[in-house]
């Protein structure tokens, strides 16, 4: 069936439906595009033969907000949206945002703080006996007791806070299909305790073959316990060997079943073959549309998962480190659909995923034994077992470039330059430079200090330097003017003020002048957030330096934009605090010049004082002379 899924009972009746089986609730505006999680889940529910309705950005102050479709036959499937509601509502400095790219007109304030909990409580109040399932990023990353940056405290599992029946973590297709089947057979959510990729709450009891991490009460009061619990939770995030993990919350027990198995290639192809409209619902047209569609409308998702395993990234805890990808035929089929879209201007904006140039597991062994515990595939150096192969991905890009109506195929979702360098065949690198960059290529070295990079889970800066050198050689060889846009993070755990100065020196030397920089943003359930809260690296249990004061964080941030006149004073202070006054001056390696305005003022002031003294002395001399002359005359 084509067309948008219904957002009202009137639209449902146009489909011949007099009731709804499942109601999908989202904190985003309704955009029927596969880059939006709620679009995939709602289309999957439709494909399974159920009647599904959409409630987008409900006003919880309205008692009828969850009565749009009446009482759903099976239940509510609720998400806060594509991004955690607190991340969307607040900056890293905890200032309220005025904009929201996932809302009509890009105007903020359409979703409440901690939207998932607010929506669930409103749905429960409206229909107390209707099952509630939660999923998406906010649910997935808050499934255990977690440090909340905005409240600056450890909070319990969102499953307890929200009062939902089941939590689906990670990519939800497998578990949602099983939940729907069992609900339609009359089974109650409280008996669905064996579904992979889900969490549930029960009275405290022993769970066979499970691993226990410290209780909510313990991790809320003991930072060492919090770090150990984080390590357990991250290590069991593997669909091959991951075990059931339990955590006490008072007299209740949070149970996380092992992760769901990733979709096979054929299953992933089916997901992207569903009849998405690839646009926001027409009701938003008069409101200015939904800005988030601009970057993704003509983009194609090629893969899921990321074996990069950066410690600050939530993908590890959500999509996992095991990479799966679509078939070349599936990607080409979607691209052909794009060319027939009347809004298509010939440009495919992206062909990628969490990391564009990943197409398969890092090594063949991951299929049978899972991802290695306590190790990373690429950092600090590539694993010897890593298989770097861009041939299939390059073949896809070549086919898309040749499609009638396609002028250009860009790669914008980011590449791992360290993985690219591991491929001895430079064909992809060369064609990336020649065909798939729109003048600038965004890459993420993140920092240059070895200690900080190790705690980030990133390769050392020498790898980036090697990549950059070769990038500009290839760019010159094809006669193009293209640039790298490095992405840097300030104040990541492990980065001291002296490390930020070192990074500023590196940027000055390499003529890097970012227009925007990002303070480290502690989001739930990442290893880096654990470091920020506890001051402990959960992998090694060793202490980690953390920049906490607003003043130091402001200095680290300003150092990344040392060249801005408004940052002169704070950068100068940072250089003095670190004993690096050698970087204050007019030399080529200096970060800031002395404040010439003050020097000029000081010199002028001294000159005025000298001039005044001269005038006074001259006046005294004249007065003496006149007096002397007067005496002589007398």
Top-tier CATH class of the largest domain: Alpha Beta
Number of strands: 22
Helix content: 25-40%
Gross CATH architecture of the largest domain: 3-Layer(aba) Sandwich
Assembly state of the chains shown: single chain
The neighbouring-strand order within the major sheet is 3-1-4-5-8-9-12-11-10
Spatial gap, N to C terminus:
123 Å
Strand content: 5-15%
What structural category characterises the helix and strand content?
A: alpha/beta
**Radius of gyration (Å):** 30 Å
The total tally of domains equals: 4
Largest sheet: 9 strands, mixed
Weakly predicted, low-confidence segments: 598-603, 620-634
Per DSSP, the total helix count is 24
What is the average per-residue confidence, as pLDDT, rounded to a whole number?
93
Structure description:
- Residues 598-603 and 620-634 have low confidence and may be disordered.
- The longest helix is centred in the C-terminal third of the chain and has 38 residues, at 596-633.
- α2 (37-47) packs across α7, α9 packs antiparallel against α21 (527-534) and α13 (328-339) packs parallel to α15 (391-401).
- The chain is an alpha/beta fold and 634 residues long.
- The protein is built from 24 helices and 22 strands.
- The chain has 4 domains: 9-200, 3-Layer(aba) Sandwich (Rossmann fold), CATH 3.40.50.280; 298-438, Transcription Regulator spoIIAA (2-Layer Sandwich); 439-594, 2-Layer Sandwich (Transcription Regulator spoIIAA); 596-626.
